[in-house]
Amino acid sequence: MKAASFNYERPKSVRDALGLLAKAEGEARIMAGGQSLGPMLNLRLVQPPLIIDIASIAELRTIEHDGDALVIGACVTHADIEDGRLPDVTHGVLPRIARGIAYRAVRNRGTIGGSLGHADPAADWVTTLTALGASVQLTGAAGQRDLAVAEFIQGALQTALRPGELVTAIRIPSLSSTARFGYAKACRKPGEFAHAMGAVLIEPDKVRNRIVIGAIDTTPIVVNDSSLFGGATTHLTQQFDRALADRLLMQAGVTDPAARHIHVSVLARAIAEATA
Questions:
Q1: Would you place residue 192 in the very low, low, confident or very high pLDDT band (cuts 50, 70, 90)?
Q2: Where exactly are the structural domains of the chain?
Q3: What is the rounded CA–CA span in Å between residue 177 and residue 19?
Q4: Residue 14: which pLDDT band, with cuts at 50, 70 and 90?
Q5: Domain 7-51, second-level architecture
Q6: pLDDT value, residue 190
């Protein structure tokens, strides 16, 4: 199929894009890389009267340090991150995750902000940035506000974006030299959407851990108290409570035992990697 007819605008600034959004009164869709929106248009799952293409806005491709965090413009592509075109404050986590997203052609066009804004449960950045404690910068006519990614993602394809707002940047905290990260996902074949995801961040110097179960049809499951999975970080693998993980998945609406088994197994792999 082909997309239904629509008007197309390509603003050169965030201000212009916000002006177009305001005039559209909720009837426009934002396009960044177009790797998610494009197929939806062609399948006529969405038929907006106006597409606002923000890919050429230079403000959305900036990269800068802000204190101990890295602030990445929303239109930075997965390939930019994969190829090391920005400082890596995560000791290899960001390029590794980018490298595993779909295929190179998708990574060349797809953007980190677009991925978060689309909020597909199986998107690598949704799970990873939640685990890293990242936040998203939202800009609208009333100004800017920041939300933790865990608060921004409100369900499958649902976010906290208000009418007339744009995702303009992502703030990623620097990881200390002692921090450890584990990530695993299950796909039927490379490049396909994942059926299960698990991410684990261990920060010994801050006595803090975070466990995230992603690729479920709701918000990711976030466990900030890893004592629920066995107490001390050095014993997470040995004491990993599979029954508890299974119950959390049940509470999140994953009723298929086989699907839960895959999720639990993927999470076990992520924990093993982080504690190796």
A1: confident
A2: 7-51, 59-173, 180-275
A3: 43
A4: very high
A5: 2-Layer Sandwich (3.30)
A6: 81
DSSP line for 78-104: HHHHHTT-S--SSTTHHHHHHHTSS-H
Beta carbons within 10 angstroms of residue 220's beta carbon: 21
pLDDT at residue 74 tops 70: yes
In this structure, which topology does domain 180-275 adopt according to CATH?
A: Enolase-like; domain 1 (3.30.390)
Other beta carbons less than 10 A from residue 84's beta carbon? 12
- Distance (Å, whole) CA 45 – CA 34: 14
Residue 194 and residue 189: Cα distance in Å, rounded?
Answer: 9
Whole-prediction pTM: 0.94
**Predicted local confidence at residue 228, as pLDDT:** 63
Confidence (pLDDT) at 205? 82
Across-strand partners of 191? none
Report the pLDDT averaged over residues 35-40: 92
Beta-carbon contacts of 186 under 8 Å, excluding residues fewer than 6 positions away, are: 194, 195, 196, 197, 262, 265, 266
- 41's enclosing H/E stretch is helix 37-42
CATH architecture for residues 59-173: 2-Layer Sandwich (3.30)
